[in-house]
Each structure stands twice: as structure tokens, then as C-alpha cells.
Design brief:
Number of helices: 15
Radius of gyration: 20 Å
Mean pLDDT: 92
Low-confidence stretches: none
Strand order of the largest sheet: 3-2-4-5-9-10-1-11
Strand content: 15-25%
Shape: globular
Structural class: alpha+beta
Order of helices and strands: HHHEHEEHHEHEHEEEHEEHEEHHEHHH
Number of strands: 13
Largest sheet: 8 strands, mixed
Helix content: 25-40%
Length: 398
């Protein structure tokens, strides 16, 4: 139970007002509420505190000598899963939506913080406190844009809700955990998704126009374990673009500075994490971090087909080669990119080794970005686990 600690309130910042994190603001929404009073200590980009909040949320921080802990955070179990009866229209099989519906309908929570889209734009996030199954299902499918999920915290307190499920990504969840004891909730559950490389709505448009054959018909997309970007279109067709064929030279600046300075890919502070990065293609990777996470997963266990996580291949050479290639904005001709993608799909890292490949690639990139653009923040912004991961590789000089 979270204690109903009294808290000080400040006037929410106006939309056009500068944010305390300045260019590094991830637009998590905290500054849109009277909890802005706590932003200097709560914001993931002003006060990185993953280890301390792991201790509070999970009872311990990660063991840096244990490779699974080092990479994937504090956890009790990991598995691969998919729904036996998928939800129509879900991005994958609908595990996140099913769990949220189950928790609401069983009365474990009175509301679910999730992200629908605006009526005008399928990619423009609209944060809601869902009170019905229909409202939860309206939020299915990922929105790969910066989203102010915490902007509803003030609404939650004023509404008198006492039991809440929050679905969110790492920067949002770190700020949420930092103010958790101020919320006055009887019970807070946190369902997280792994997150990397979000963009503004304008940045998303540039990515779609640069990468997809039909940007105006894209329903959703994901960077997948087969080293391809999978675009799903309105007519149900799927478009595959190899990672190595992306126009990196045009896209280097499209991702938000906050995402380029983030080291919480795996959503370390959620109770339960559902993503794809450590699972076989077509399955979801589920990580329970604490007893609340196990309690949540048990609600839908009988709806899932599960298998153990596996690991295959060696990521390190591919990661080392990717560092200068990304740094120089190298883009291969599409025929070469497709060929390379096929080769790596056959012999490259899979399962948890693919997850480590993805983490290593992004951490080395983000470390270099932070070192170059925010050198004064480097020491405090990079967690110890990320420093250890990055130290395995040879980075270009400053």
C-alpha cells in the first residue's frame, strides 16, 4: 500500500512554458500537473535514480555481477508468451490490453492510465483514465510518439480513485515511482513496456516518409527481432524494411534528445514488463519484477501459451561494427541491406542474446550522444549498469 503522504502543490506549467529538463524533456506529463513541485527530484533527466527506486519498488537493486540482472533488471521470472485467442486489432496478440481489462473487471483497480489516439490522428497520443473495457481496448496499438501519460495524475487524485493501474514507459515510470507516495493510493500497479527511440509527431512523420512506401496508410510499426522494421498498413498488408537499409544519414536527428540520453530500455521500475525484445519472433517477452507483477500475470496465465526464454548467437562483433556505422550515418543500398538482413537473421543473435544486442547498440549510441551533447551530465545520467555494459566496447574518442 502506498502511504497517503500529504504533498505540496505547485501550479502546473503552461503548455508553452519551458520545461525544467529543457531539451531533454521527454514530455512525461508530470509538469502538466501540480506535482510539478517534485520535478527536480522526480524527472529521469534531472535526477537519474534507478538503483534507489529499484530498491523501493522491488526490495533490491540489480546485481551487476549477474548478467541477466545487469541487462534486464531486477526480476523474478522471464518467459515468452502469446495469447491463445488474440484480440482483433491488437498490435501483437493483446497481452497488455487483456491484462488491463482483467484487472479492471475483477475490481483490482478502479481505473487504468493508458493512451488512446485523438479522433483526427491515429499517432497523436490522448492519455485517458479508462474505466471500462471499451476504453481500454480503444488504447490498443502502440503510439511511437512522446506521450504525457502522467498528465492525468491530478485528475486521478481529484477523482478519488484508490486503486490504479498505470501503463507506461521508463521515463514516465521513474517519475511516477518518485512521487508514488504522494498519490494517496491504496494500491498502485505498474505495467511497463520496453521503450526506445520515440519521436515527436513531426519526427514520426519524417521517419514514415523517409522509410515507408506508403506513410499515409501505416497503422503501426515495430523494429523486430528479424532485423527488419515491420509496417502494418490499413489494407492489412505488411511492409518489411531491413534495419541496414534505413536512411540513417537523414534520421540521425529525428529521435527525441531524451530518448537519445535514456538508459532504461527495459523499464526497470515496472511491476510487470511486456515487450518483444527477448522472445522468439511472433511471441512477447514477459518479465515479472516483484510479487505485484506475479499477481498481475497470474490473472491471465490461463489465456497464454508460454515457453521458456532462450538465447543463441554472439552479439558483440555486430554491436562493435554498428558503433562507427551509426556514428557516420552509413546507409547501405537496399539490395545490400536486404542481403545483410537475411544473413544476420540466419546466424545472428536470437532470444535474450538479441535483447542484449539491442541494449548494447542503444546504450553505446546513447552514451556517445550524451558525452558529446551533455558532457556535464554524463557521470550522473548514465547508471552504473549502463556504464558496465558500455565498457565492453571500444568507442571513438571524444
Amino acid at each position: 500500500m502506498t502511504s497517503a503522504a500529504p504533498h505540496r502543490k505547485a501550479k502546473a506549467l503552461k503548455p508553452e512554458s519551458p520545461r525544467p529538463a529543457k531539451a531533454l524533456c521527454s514530455e512525461c506529463g508530470l509538469c502538466d500537473t501540480y506535482y510539478v513541485h517534485y520535478v527536480k527530484s522526480a524527472c529521469a533527466f534531472l535526477n537519474q535514480q534507478i538503483a534507489e527506486l529499484e530498491e523501493e519498488s522491488h526490495g533490491r537493486s540489480r546485481d551487476l555481477e549477474n548478467e541477466d540482472d545487469l541487462y534486464f533488471g531486477v526480476h523474478q521470472t522471464m518467459m515468452a508468451a502469446r495469447k491463445k485467442d488474440p484480440i482483433p486489432g491488437a498490435q501483437w496478440t493483446g497481452i497488455v490490453s487483456s491484462l488491463a481489462c482483467e484487472m479492471l473487471e475483477r475490481g483490482l483497480v478502479e481505473g487504468v492510465v493508458c493512451v488512446q489516439n485523438t479522433p483526427e490522428d491515429r499517432f497523436q497520443p490522448q492519455v485517458v483514465v479508462a474505466r471500462t473495457r471499451e476504453e481500454i481496448l480503444a488504447a490498443r496499438v502502440n503510439k511511437p510518439t512522446l506521450s504525457p501519460n502522467l498528465s492525468v495524475l491530478e485528475e486521478v487524485e481529484k477523482s478519488g480513485l484508490r486503486r490504479l493501474l498505470v501503463i507506461g514507459v521508463g521515463c514516465q515510470i521513474q517519475a511516477l515511482r518518485a512521487v508514488e507516495r504522494r498519490l494517496g493510493l491504496e494500491k498502485l500497479y505498474v505495467l511497463g513496456t520496453p521503450c526506445v527511440d520515440n519521436v515527436s509527431r513531426a519526427g514520426l512523420q519524417k521517419f514514415l516518409e523517409t522509410t515507408s512506401r506508403s506513410p499515409e496508410t501505416v497503422v503501426h510499426y515495430e523494429f523486430m527481432q528479424d532485423f527488419r522494421v515491420h509496417f502494418k498498413h490499413e489494407d492489412g498488408s505488411e511492409e518489411l524494411v531491413p534495419f541496414f537499409g534505413l536512411k540513417t544519414n537523414q534520421l540521425k536527428d529525428v529521435f527525441a534528445p531524451s530518448c537519445m540520453s535514456c538508459f532504461d530500455y527495459v523499464n526497470s521500475l515496472a511491476d510487470l514488463v511486456v515487450g518483444y525484445m527477448g522472445a522468439p519472433f511472433g511471441w512477447q517477452w514477459i518479465v515479472t519484477r516483484n510479487d505485484r507483477g506475479r499477481e498481475m500475470l497470474a490473472l491471465i496465465q490461463d489465456q497464454l501459451e508460454v515457453q521458456p526464454v532462450g538465447s543463441q548467437g554472439d552479439r558483440k562483433q555486430a554491436v562493435q561494427q554498428s558503433i562507427p556505422a551509426y556514428d557516420r550515418g552509413v546507409t547501405l543500398p537496399m539490395w545490400a541491406a536486404r542481403l545483410m538482413g537475411l544473413v544476420i537473421e540466419k546466424i545472428g543473435p536470437k532470444g535474450l542474446e538479441y535483447a542484449r544486442f539491442s541494449i548494447d547498440s542503444h546504450f553505446t549510441r546513447n552514451y556517445l550522444y550524451t558525452r558529446r551533447h551533455y558532457p556535464e551530465k554524463l557521470e550522473a545520467q548514465v547508471p552504473e549498469f549502463a556504464k558496465k555494459i558500455v565498457s565492453q566496447y571500444q568507442l571513438p574518442p571524444s
